[in-house]
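Suppose a colleague, Dr. K., hands you the sequence of a protein chain of 127 amino acids and asks what its three-dimensional shape might be. Before reaching for any lab equipment, you can write down a predicted structure in token form. Begin with the sequence itself:
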Amino acid sequence: MAQVYPYFYKGKLRTKQDKCRAMIPLDRARIWLDFNEYCAEDENTRDPIYLFSQADIVSDSEGNDIELCEGMEVFVFDYDLNSLNEPDALLAQGILIKNFLEYYPNTEWLIRLTKNKEEYIYRMSDL
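The predicted structure, expressed as tokens, is then:
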């Protein structure tokens, strides 16, 4: 995960975690998610859960500050290569949940991915 630092936001001292800006065109503003940080599965829906952020404010792919809150729908991306070894983006969306996992005490937020057309993760080139 990216470094967390003190940050004044709306007149209050908060914490912020800078995420990656997009180096390739995306379909919309998205927040970077490391798809290697799978950590759990939802007990009811079996949806995958990933570590998301150590702070309450993150930056999106366009550099905008995003204040995180419980139940917020977010659109995420990660970098990958397609079958021709060209840059491509992995895309997904999900719902933010407060960290309930004892073994990741430094993580504030998790994301539970939701399906998009029967898939959790899809490629930019497939749109």
